[in-house]
Amino acid sequence: MGTEHLRVEPIDPATLLVDRNVRHDARLDADFLASIREHGVLVPVVPVRTADETLRVRYGHRRTLAAVEVGRDTIPVVVAGQDGDDDAEQVARLVTQYAENTHRAALTTAEQVGVFAQLAAFGLSPTQIAKRTRARKADVTAALAVADSDLAAAATGRYEFLTLDQAAIVADFFLMWTRRGTPTWRARRGAVAGCRSRSSATAVWSGGCA
After folding, report:
1. What is the pTM of this model?
2. Which of 67, 101, 124, 154 is a plausible cystine mate for 128, CB 3.0–4.6 Å?
């Protein structure tokens, strides 16, 4: 598959062939469709040109199918060479499609916190952030609590296994510790003492014993 003279072109997604893909199911979930409906296809689809000049998608089947589903007139496309049916070309297709779909990494908790905190700094409310990013409002609220705590924010950067909820508990613990001796701190401490287990004692800081 050659890569000479690559350029982005607007193409009707309904005209693209999507018949050769390692995925058995495109799994067009509601959030993905909503994203394509609102933002369009952000990363160009990569097809190859067949012998009869039709474009066959090599990378970007989900984006293509989602664009058709939501009624997008055009999507950005970069045509990357000619299609081929020989064994070597099909092996290359399978290997590269596998790589494209496998070697991906979701945002870490620290990176999610960073995104939500920056959006808040631009004046967006938690409700607006949740709506624009299609994140749960509870996750946005937790992320902003973490962003307000230097200790919790640092913990998410150091310990990538921490979830937003866990990091928010760290932020809450630290906040309450800095306010120890106050009526609120004493009330929380008393609630923790009444919990039956360590996990329940941890949960109380987020609303009560489990």
Report:
1. 0.73
2. 124
Q: Provide the domain count of the chain.
A: 3
C-beta contacts of 171-177 below 8 A and 24+ residues apart: 171/145, 171/146, 172/145, 172/205, 172/206, 173/205, 174/149, 175/149, 176/205
- Tell me how long the chain is: 210
Cβ atoms of residues 144 and 130 within 8 Å: no
Q: Model confidence over 77-124: pLDDT tens digits?
A: 999 999 998 999 999 999 999 999 998 888 999 999 999 999 999 999
Parent domain of 47: 8-102
Q: Please answer whether residues 56 and 48 qualify as being in contact, where contact means their C-beta atoms are separated by less than 8 angstroms.
A: yes
Measured distance CA(118)–CA(140) in Å, rounded: 12
d(CA 60, CA 97) in angstroms, rounded, equals 9
